[in-house]
Amino acid sequence: MQVLQRLTALSTRWNALFRDHEIFVRTGGDVRFIRLSAQVQRRVATVVSLALGAWLIFTIGMLAYQAATAWQRQDVAARAAIVERAEARVARESGRIEHIAERLDARQKYLEGVVTQHLGVEVEADAKAAGDAAAAAARATSPTLPADADKISVLRAIGQRQEQLAVAMTAAITERSARAESALRAVGIRPGSTANQGGPFIPANRDGLLPPREPLFQRLDAAIDRMEFLENLVLSLPSTIPAAGMNLSSGFGYRRDPFTGAGAMHAGLDFKGPHGSPIYSAAAGTISFAGRKAGYGNVVEVDHGHGIITRYAHLSGFAARAGQRVAPGQLIARMGSTGRSTGTHLHFEVRVNGTAVNPRRFLESNSDVLEVQADAGERVRTRAGAR
Prior knowledge:
Blueprint: H1 2-16, E1 21-27, E2 30-36, H2 38-118, H3 125-139, H4 145-186, H5 215-235, E3 247-250, E4 253-256, E5 263-266, E6 269-272, E7 278-280, E8 285-293, E9 297-305, E10 308-313, E11 315-318, E12 325-326, E13 331-335, E14 345-352, E15 355-357, H6 360-363, H7 367-386
Antiparallel strand pairs: 1-2, 3-6, 4-5, 6-14, 7-13, 8-9, 8-12, 9-10, 10-14, 11-13, 14-15
Helix pairs in contact: 2-3, 2-4, 3-4, 4-5, 5-7
């Protein structure tokens, strides 16, 4: 009811705006009257109002459409920017996964090579599993960020296992080095260090194994170097008896010379035996000399490396030639009595850096020396077989 009353009031006010009007128009001497009725005025005003309203509605609509279109364009641009950032992040994560996987694969190859080539045993299941997982992650695709994040977590776990394995291997290798050093000290040899050394830097690539440039693996590689140096030194010790059934006839040190009776230094051990008895190399090495020397007669010298040389003198014949590589216990000569000799025997010397030392300390090596030699020898044979 109130609405109807308000409409009626508005209609009354609207009608009141318009009144009948008469307009005088003089043309020449004629005067005419033009009458504008209120009804016509109302119709004209209504038409104009409707036209203005329609124009206003159209204008507002166009402005609204333009605003909506602009907002949509901004929204599309914003979404495109989000997608672009997401794709860039996916690319970065994928590249990161590939980089981590490549690093882990290089680590794994190094660890497996160390185990098989320098420890002489098969790769542990843990290390192999770590390598398989790293290879699988490297081959995997990366469709979504969460999956990539999971892969990075897996790769990090693999990396931690590799680092734990490297620490354990370093400890095991250090222990082997300590055993070898103890065995060397037992025979009176003090292993040297890296002091008083030099030369240009050439990156190591031992047997195709290039250690990762990380402190943990560099320490492992240094431990391997030390172990190999010490074990090779133990292997060079002349601890193999040079002749079977030997009977000591003269010891090392000062004695009465058998020809003059004067005091003299005897630089080796004399063992008597049947003429032509086989003489064996006391350790692995290379024949550095095979011929005659004053006072020694027929002589064979074997260079075992690390400054250690063994000398076999008064021989009746040779079974090896200079430059030949020999193994421990390999036949190299025959016992005789050539040179300054009173009868058939073997004069056996051991020289370290040119100085004669008592051969008994090597021939009577304790169990530690023999154990280290056995382990190191097995490692060398396994390594040679792998090649």
